[in-house]
């Protein structure tokens, strides 16, 4: 690729973004009381000099404070996979908060059992507990795994993503051994004291780490997502399950992003059998919600332990977890929005998106790859597609990524800012997908000169 041309195009699109968005630029400049000038520092992970500021959002559309409306394939990095403010969730939240009253009373609601039963139907795990985020669900699942196994360490895949869980911020270093993930902030200890790591799709490396006998649980995404989609090779996930059982290690499937694979995530789509499952973001339809599920056997083993404080100070709960508002939103999302039929629609659109991107890439003879996980599609600047997280991280090209993101945003299309991911929601249309295909093709044509 002609990098000089790329730099010129990136400068042009950056200037256009500043010209088009004076109110967002001013709001960012005036946000002196916010750490990093944004409510949450990740919001600075955006192409251009400042983020666009949200005015309104509905379905598959967001509008910024400068009046530009976008086809939204980012969808809050999965948090809005149900679409923005879906009607059923809006109604349920209004009823719970405004009509019935009360969001958090430290009292259960009948909605919770409905949600637990539905999560069991979808994912197969028998017992469920709620959190506000998938990060907390992962933290609590880890504590339970350590408690029941008596082992100290957690194993994750290199460049996997499980929120801000300290144990997960480890990668395979150049020497093949575990090392802190670059950029980690304020680690409480050397991560190798708490964690082991293996490359995704590498069963030999996994077995070498499990053979130490100190791993309480393997915490993994069934497909890597937050480093670009990395799909499991044939037999890999079966091998993971066999090895964890062989070495007495629990298996935790984090389905927070891989929920895109279908109504029951990869666990149902691929007939997986984890001991625990964690999920967050999308299940609340935009309201903060998370959950973790346990197999019946594991739940019984934990509840039978009189030395574990699962009610008060055991470190597996929070005052707002399972609150009435979040649970009502989760019920509405699962019952009326992210239904089996909705996933069929989203899957078809993601396949259409994949076909459009692949055609454009092939037309220009680019050495890129396209991967899809149900309703989620992503392209990578590498061919063949990366098979490990480390390979996927090495394939990143920040300048090229920024150009494509700015080019699309300046023409009314948003992708997930962390990488080149597009997610479908129930309100996404074929026309939305085809619009992206056309604009993406035009961007590649400009790159080609």
From TrEMBL:
Report the cofactors: pyridoxal 5'-phosphate
Q: Does the keyword Endoplasmic reticulum apply?
A: no
One Pfam family, short name please?
Aminotran_3
What keywords sit in the KW lines? Pyridoxal phosphate
Q: Does the keyword Oxidoreductase apply?
A: no
Tell me the InterPro entries matching this sequence: Aminotrans_3, PyrdxlP-dep_Trfase, PyrdxlP-dep_Trfase_major, PyrdxlP-dep_Trfase_small
**What PANTHER family does the annotation carry?**
GLUTAMATE-1-SEMIALDEHYDE 2,1-AMINOMUTASE, GLUTAMATE-1-SEMIALDEHYDE 2,1-AMINOMUTASE 1, CHLOROPLASTIC-RELATED
Entry-linked NCBIfam families: PRK07046.1
Q: Which family is this sequence assigned to?
A: Belongs to the class-III pyridoxal-phosphate-dependent aminotransferase family.
Stated name of the protein:
Transaminase
Source species, please?
A: Streptomyces hyaluromycini
